[in-house]
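Researcher: Predict the fold of PhoH family protein.
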Amino acid sequence: MATKGKLASNPSKKIFVLDTSVILYDHDAINNFHEHDVAIPIQVLEELDNFKSGNDTRNFEARSFIRLIDQTSKQKLISDWVALKAEKAGMFRVVFNEKPLKVDAEEVFGKGKTDHKILNAALSLKEENPDKKVVLVSKDICLRLKAKALDLFAEDYETGKIKNVDELYAGKTELTNFSEVIIDEVKKGNIINTTSIDFPFKDGNHFYVLKNKRKTANVFYNHNLKTISSVSIDTVFKIRPKNIEQAFAIHALLDPEIKLVSIQGNAGTGKTLLAIASALEQRKNFRQIYVTRPIVSLSNKDIGFLPGDAKSKIDPFMAPIWDNLRFIKEQFIGDDKMSEKIDELITTEKIAIAPLAFIRGRTLTKIFFIIDEAQNLTPHEVKTIISRAGEHTKIVFTGDIYQIDTPYLDSESNGLSYLIENAKNHPLYAHITLQKGERSELANLANELL
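Model: C-alpha cells for PhoH family protein follow.
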C-alpha cells in the first residue's frame, strides 16, 4: 500500500537517499538496505534515462533499475512511499523537486547542477522526517563531503566492498621448518596425501613454499584431493617464469581442473603475458582464445567520440594486449612455422582481441577467456561474465587493484577484489598475487619509489 508524504514514526529506521552513481554500480541497490526505507531524487531517474541506451555495463544497470522500479510500483504512484518486494524490506519513494526550508544546497553551492538538487531532495526528506536519520548514499566522494558540510549524513555504498584490502587473499603461503622428508619426496615428483602428514589445511586451492634450512619445494595444494604436488618452472610457449609467483600462476593457468583463475599484481609483473602464453600453449583444447578488457578512456568519454570506424576506435585501448602477443611472437624468431601459426590464429580469429562490451549476451563455450584490467569492473560485471561460461570454458581475470581508472570504484569496491575475496575457497578457483615486477629495473623503480 502506498503511503503519502511523511512516514510513520519509527526512530530506529533510517531513510537512505541514493544517487545515480550507486544505481550504475548496482541496479539492485534499493533491496540491500534491510528494513530501512530508500528514496531516490527525481534527478536520478532523469540521469538514468540518459544512460539507458548503449552496450556498456552502466547502460545495462540503468535499464535494469528502471524495469525494477516499474515492477515495484505497478499501479501505485512512486511519489508516495510504496513497499519494496524483498523480504523484510522497507519502503521506496521518488523525491521531487522540493526545496528545503532551512538550508538550500543550490544557494550554498550554486544553481543548475544535478548534484545540488539531489542534496536538496535529501535535505527536504530530513525536514519531513525529523525523528529519522536520513543518509545520502553515493560513490561520489565530493558529493558526500558537500552533504556533510550541510549537516547531512553521507556514506559510500558498502555492498560488495572488501573490508580490509591490505589483508586480501594472496594465494601463497611460506612454511618454514617443514619436514625435509616431505620436501625431498615432492621434489622427486611424488604426489603427497596431506591427510597423513602435519599440514595446515586450507579451505580452497593454495600454493605453498615449503622450506627447511637450505631445502625448498614449491607446491600446489589441491583442496578436492587433499594433496600437494610440485610446481614446475618450465617454459610455457617459450615464456619462462622469472620468479616462483609466476610459476604458480602458470600452474593455475595450465591446470584443466581449475576453471576460474585470478592474477593480481602491479604493472610489469607479467599478468597478461603469462595468461596469453598459457592460452596459446593450450590452443588445441579450446575452440577460441578470447582476450578482452573494459574500455575506460582517461576522459571518461565513450569511444564514439573518437574518429574512424569501430576497429580504429578500439585499437588504442587494445594496444597493450597486442604488445604482449607481439612479444610472444618475437620469441619464435627463426621459427617461421610457429610465427606463421600465430598469424593464422589471429587471421582466423582463433585468438580474438576485442573490448568487453562486444561479448555481452554471448554464451562462452569451450573458450579460454582472459579479462585484462579486471580492476575496472564492478562486482556485478564480474558475476555477469562468469555466469556466461559454458561447458569446457576457462576464465582468467588479471589486474592491479591499486590502479583503477573507473570513476566510483576503488581498491575495496572493484570486481577483482570482490572475486578474490569471495571465490578463494571454491574448488574450481585459484589465485596468485604477483609481487615482483619483471618488466625492467626502471619500471620497478616507479612501483617501489614513486
